[in-house]
Amino acid sequence: MRDYKRFLKEKAYINGEWVLESNGATFEVRNPFDNSKIAEVPDLGREETKEAISAAQVALEDWKNETAEYRAKLLKKLFNLQLEFADELAYILTLEQGKPLTEALGEIKYGASFIEWFSEEARRTYGETIPTNAKNRRILTIKQPVGVVAAITPWNFPNAMITRKIAPALAAGCTVVVKPAESTPLSALAIGILAEMAGIPKGVINIITTNRPIEVGQELTSNPIIKKISFTGSTHVGKILMKQCANSVKKVSMELGGNAPFIVFDDADINTAVEGVIASKFRNSGQTCVCTNRIFVHDSIYDEFTYKLSKEVTKMKVGNGVEKDTVIGPLINESAVNFLSDLVEDASTKGAEVIVGGSLDKEKGNFFPPTILGNVNEEMDVFNKEIFGSIAPLIRFSKEEEVIAMANNTPYGLASYFFSKDYARIWRVSEALDYGMVGVNTGKISTTVAPFGGVKESGIGREGSKYGIEEYLEIKYICVGGL
Question: Is residue 195 within 8 Å of 78, Cβ to Cβ?
Answer without folding.
Answer: yes
